[in-house]
């Protein structure tokens, strides 16, 4: 909004030539990050007080670790604050004519609504069960499918470089120009939707300890920030994407502004969510942030690499799936409790130790993912 409203003024008023800085994505990304961070810091104390006043508190699973009993009643749905602090700076600093930005923010907001309904039902029923899983999946699939399909319907607004590779899959650590796999449209769109929905739910499963999910979310967002900028950057007629042989996506650079907003909002939220948490994210935040990360993976052509980059989320989701399948088939559990972070709690690991070690693993995976740009 700021870019669209004020940047054109430099052409009409000479003394406003300094507005030229708005055309640079790094500047607007930094400003979005700072704006999101300040919004969260300023609003969080009031927001937490309101949640307490309205008795919007966490409902703890009966079968959960004993150490979680003290968490009962802690304000939840803090993800609503994250969404406000994420979406507003994106709207302010990003180019809203960019279809990637529109689709990604739409999925983030839409999944936030689904998460809100889930949290609301949990609080109303005073139970850890919220919105039925089939309804959540249906809503996620419809919203994700609509957003991704939108980018195939507005190809006239996107560069030819993107249109020509829309349905290609990049193979991690292999040359994009030589080894990308071309999928038919009817196969690619459902796959891309699956990536978005799966990422959303994987982040949701990870959100079980104080600050556990928001750390890897910010690390992933930071990685996508670098990747999206490199994929879209052309400096003095020199394309970084072409040099590195990754997907060249001129419009993807604008997603860096969105990523910056995620990081800024995440840092501000972590101030209050770090152990012991004053507020929890809730599904309104985890589903939305996960959906946003899934869209970033699709639009930067990192659908497969996201399995490595989001390894923490993948491990959490796989631990739940294997636990359920094992119990149904054999009557035995593989883990003491799923998701896997609860398994380590049951083994006696302190909560901060689990959180920090998962963050360290996430940082390592992010570095390996970024290294794949050059290791081809």
Question: How would you summarize what this structure contains?
Answer:
By secondary structure, the chain is an all-alpha fold. It has helices at residues 2-6, 25-53, 79-93, 99-125, 133-153, 160-163, 176-179, 185-206, 214-232, 240-244, 255-273, 283-299, 305-309, 311-330, 340-346, 351-371; strands at residues 168-169, 181-182, 234-235, 238-239.
Overall tally of domains: 1
Terminus-to-terminus distance: 38 Å
Count of discrete alpha- or pi-helical segments spanning 4 or more residues: 16
Model regions low in confidence, pLDDT < 50 over at least 5 residues: none
Elements, N to C (H/E): HHHHHHEHEHHEEHHHHHHH
Percentage of residues in DSSP E strands: under 5%
- Biggest sheet character: 2 strands, antiparallel
Mean pLDDT: 89
Class derived from helix and strand content: mainly alpha
Number of strands: 4
Shape: globular
Q: Which strands sit side by side, in order, in the main sheet?
A: 1-2
Radius of gyration computed on alpha carbons = 21 Å
Q: Which key terms come to mind for this protein?
A:
two-stranded antiparallel ribbon; 376 residues; 16 helices; two-stranded antiparallel sheet; 4 strands; mainly alpha
Describe the protein in words:
- It is a single chain.
- This protein is mainly α.
- It has one domain.
- Helices cover about 65% and strands about 0% of the residues.
- The chain has 16 helices and 4 strands.
- The strands form 2 sheets. A two-stranded antiparallel sheet has the order 1-2. It has a two-stranded antiparallel ribbon with strand order 3-4.
- A hairpin with a 2-residue loop joins strand 3 and strand 4.
- Helix 8 packs antiparallel against helix 12.
- The radius of gyration is 21 Å and the shape is globular.
- The protein starts with a helix and ends in a 5-residue tail after the last helix.
């Amino acid at each position: 909004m700021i870019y669209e409203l004020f940047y054109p003024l430099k052409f009409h008023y000479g003394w406003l030539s300094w507005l030229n800085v708005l055309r640079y994505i790094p500047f607007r990304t930094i400003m979005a990050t700072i704006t999101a961070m300040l919004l969260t810091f300023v609003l969080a104390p009031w927001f937490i007080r309101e949640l307490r006043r309205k008795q919007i508190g966490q409902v703890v699973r009966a079968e959960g670790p004993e150490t979680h009993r003290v968490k009962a009643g802690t304000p939840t749905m803090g993800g609503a604050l994250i969404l406000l602090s994420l979406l507003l700076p994106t709207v302010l600093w990003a180019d809203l004519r960019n279809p990637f930005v529109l689709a990604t923010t739409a999925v983030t907001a839409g999944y936030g609504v689904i998460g809100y309904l889930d949290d609301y039902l949990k609080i109303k029923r005073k139970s850890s069960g919220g919105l039925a899983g089939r309804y959540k999946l249906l809503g996620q699939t419809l919203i994700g499918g609509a957003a991704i399909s939108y980018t195939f319907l507005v190809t006239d607004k996107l560069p030819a470089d993107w249109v020509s590779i829309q349905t290609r899959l990049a193979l991690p650590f292999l040359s994009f120009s030589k080894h990308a796999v071309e999928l038919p449209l009817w196969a690619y769109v459902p796959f891309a939707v699956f990536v978005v929905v799966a990422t959303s739910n994987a982040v949701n499963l990870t959100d079980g300890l104080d600050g556990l999910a928001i750390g890897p979310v910010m690390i992933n967002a930071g990685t996508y920030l670098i990747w999206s900028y490199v994929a879209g950057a052309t400096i003095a007629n020199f394309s970084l994407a072409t040099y590195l042989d990754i997907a060249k996506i001129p419009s993807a650079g604008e997603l860096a502004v969105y990523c910056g907003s995620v990081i800024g909002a995440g840092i501000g939220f972590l101030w209050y969510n770090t152990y012991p948490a004053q507020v929890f994210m809730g599904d309104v935040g985890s589903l939305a942030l996960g959906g946003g990360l899934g869209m970033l993976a699709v639009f930067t052509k990192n659908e497969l690499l996201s399995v490595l980059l989001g390894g923490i989320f993948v491990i959490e989701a796989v631990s739940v799936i294997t636990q359920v399948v094992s119990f149904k088939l054999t009557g035995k559990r593989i883990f003491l409790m799923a998701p896997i972070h609860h398994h380590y709690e049951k083994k006696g690991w302190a909560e901060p130790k689990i959180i920090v070690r998962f963050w360290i693993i996430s940082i390592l995976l992010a570095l390996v993912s970024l290294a794949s740009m050059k290791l081809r």
